[in-house]
Amino acid sequence: MTPTALVTRPQPQADAWAARLRAEGLAAEALPLLAIAPAPEAAAVRAALSRLPAQALVVFVSPNAVAQALACAPGWAWPAGLRAAAVGPGTVAALQAAGVPAAAITAPVAPPYESESLWALLAGQTWAGRTALIVRGDGGREWLGEQLRAAGAAVQAVQAYGRGDPVWSDAQRACAQAALAAPAAHCWLLSSSEAVGALARLLPGTDWAASQAIASHARIAQAARAAGFGRVRVVPPELAAVRDALPTMHDHDSA
Question: What domains does the chain contain, in order, with CATH numbers?
Fold first, then answer.
């Protein structure tokens, strides 16, 4: 039996992913492990976005970075000639929905979707004396910014959103308890290491040895294994890949 997918992305991405999986004939529930909060200083985000025409590159780290930046500066217009950069297809889709031309976006077109893959597309350009803006949440990897600085770019980062633990509804808490009671009948879809860390706070004292997960990156899989998950597979964050992987979860040990 194909396990029920527990989509742990923040809202509204969790609902959207669960709906897409259900449209493929799979059982799926939205069970966010992170909550997204607005920018702590919206004025700082607006100021950074007002200077977009002076930038050579603007990196958005996630769909939430796009959505929350837009919330701070509704009605923004993407400057002609400005490059946007994204790591994953979800962020690319969010940028295009926000009016950024597809031709203006640099992003990996195949897994692995990570900063290293994006930098491979950017590294051949001249960055000395140029400026770059990174739109992100609180914390996260500094690696891409470090590469841009090492190449001579002046890099600024602006925090467009915060992250915290979600407040589950009674139905969501019941869903989580059902997953713990029948781990083989459920599969956790993990899209960030921070989400894995939130499990210890949301479900303290849980033994995850009988639970299984699909992780969207090797670093997330490593965090899931460290948390105690007995079965973990790395699957690209693409609908078709997740759809095809779910029915086979019973056939794979940790890989």
Answer: 4-34+165-251 (3.40.50.10090), 37-163 (3.40.50.10090)
Q: Name, in order, each residue with C-beta under 8 angstroms of 198's C-beta and a sequence gap of 6 or more.
A: 33, 34, 165
pTM of the model: 0.90
Query: Which residues touch 122 (CB under 8 Å, ≥6 apart)?
Result: 57, 85, 106, 148
Q: What is the mean predicted confidence (pLDDT) over 19-40? A: 97
Residue 135 to residue 65: CA distance in whole angstroms: 6
Please give the backbone phi and psi of residue 198, each rounded to the nearest 5 degrees, phi first: -70, -25
Of 234, 192, 241, which Cα lies nearest the Cα of 212?
Answer: 234
The answer for residues whose C-beta is within 8 angstroms of residue 205's C-beta and 6 or more apart is none
Asked if 134 and 119 count as a contact pair (C-beta separation under 8 A), the reply is: no
Using alpha carbons, select from 157, 134, 20, 155 the residue that is nearest to residue 87.
134
Is pLDDT at 95 greater than 80 in this prediction?
A: yes
Token pair 């509804």 is found at 169
